[in-house]
Amino acid sequence: MESLKLGSLEVWPPVVLAPMAGITNAPFRTLCREQGGGLFVCEMITTRALVERNPKTFRMIRFEPAEKPRSIQLYGVDPVTVGRAVRMIADEDLADHVDLNFGCPVPKVTRRGGGSALPYKRNLLRAILREAVRNAGTLPVTMKMRKGIDDDHLTYLDAGRIAVEEGVSAIALHGRTALQHYGGTADWEAIARLKEAVTEIPVLGNGDIWSADDAMRMMAETGCDGVVVGRGCLGRPWLFRDLAAVCEGSGERVRPRLGEVAATMDRHATLLTECFDSEHHAVADFRKHVGWYLKGFTVGADLRRRLATAGTLAGLREGLAELDPDQPWPAGVDAPRGKTNPRDRVHLPAGWLDDPYDLAVPGADAELDTSGG
Ligand SMILES: Cc1cc2nc3c(=O)[nH]c(=O)nc-3n(C[C@H](O)[C@H](O)[C@H](O)COP(=O)(O)O)c2cc1C
């Protein structure tokens, strides 16, 4: 297995923590990074908020001193604004790598022509990638996308070629359409087809890696140059130790007892408190992680509820102390976790599918309230 080459950046093992809004902040990246190597992408930010120097956005792209390379994911719909945002990152040394998100399936985003709706407009996609690369200096620019809008409107092969032509350093494909949202299973065949079509730059596979063995299987079945892991590491930052081990050819896997899981939960909530500078905000944010950490363990409903509704770090710790530290890692948890829901339709602007080549730029409101991929 080879390291992943993103322009001048070399990443070993060829493993990427998928950007996940509300999850992959500095504390979670720290927990994952401490387990094994790879590239750990920040939460997505919008290009408009960055160029407007929104203070919240600047807080979201704070990195720990030990984070190398620093990776920012941008979401934008306007080539000019994307170019300005990338130039800012390069000129102000805000990161070492920029990823562009074209995978967001959220209705309020696709309805305005953004996210996973955007690559349907080939020329607009090209213009955005061109401006991003042109303004990036020596920073590698990568893109992350889905297969397309739905099975009748697949865009990934065209988008892959356009990315190569515009000087993008690598492409990550989430093997689902926007219509699938997070439902069904990811189509690894599509990743293999993209890898065949794009030979000049690395192709990364994304979707349904729940264990290190899944990562190996994806690489073997698709020929992809690296893997992007999202929901599989929710409540399991040690998956990155397994991924490093498997890439080094080791069969060792981390199977923590409940006591170690509780210690990680405590650390995660503590890091969030330091990062947010607000215990209240941190403990509230941590609530969504509780179910993921405890998935498969035998924990009474009352204690689960108390952990998931704790209002202070002390309250959380009181609950954690009641967990049975010797309970072994449960079987069968290398399985779907996090969002798994499909959608019944993709919301698009009126007439969006009429012309795949028009260059109309979606309005600035396509960048409002954006989250997720
Ligand atoms: C809570 C959540 C937030 C996400 N936010 C983003 C995001 O900001 N940018 C992005 O490109 N993808 C985002 N995604 C999609 C993931 O990066 C990834 O493509 C998707 O979950 C499929 O990979 P997986 O099967 O390994 O989870 C998000 C996914 C989840 C579950």
Task: Please describe the topology of this protein.
Elements: E1 4-6, E2 9-11, E3 15-17, H1 26-33, E4 39-46, H2 47-51, H3 55-60, E5 71-75, H4 79-91, E6 97-102, H5 107-110, H6 122-135, E7 141-148, H7 156-165, E8 170-177, H8 188-197, E9 203-206, H9 212-222, E10 226-229, H10 239-247, H11 258-276, H12 279-294, H13 301-309, H14 313-321
Parallel strand pairs: 3-4, 3-10, 4-5, 5-6, 6-7, 7-8, 8-9, 9-10
Antiparallel strand pairs: 1-2
Helix pairs in contact: 1-11, 4-6, 6-7, 9-10, 11-12, 11-14, 12-13, 13-14
Bound molecules: flavin mononucleotide.
Flavin mononucleotide binds at residues 18-23, 44, 73, 101, 103, 144, 174, 186, 206-209, 229-232, 338-339, 372-373.
Give the ordered list of helices and strands. EEEHEHHEHEHHEHEHEHEHHHHH
Count all strands and give the number.
Answer: 10
CA gyration radius, whole angstroms: 20 Å
Biggest beta-sheet profile? 8 strands, parallel, barrel
Note poorly predicted spans.
none
Q: What gap, in angstroms, lies between the N and C termini?
A: 28 Å
Helical percentage: 25-40%
Average pLDDT value?
95
Give the percentage of residues in beta strands.
5-15%
Structural class by secondary-structure content: alpha/beta
How many distinct helices? Answer: 14
Give the neighbour order of strands across the main sheet.
3-4-5-6-7-8-9-10
List cofactors, ions and other ligands. flavin mononucleotide
Shape: globular
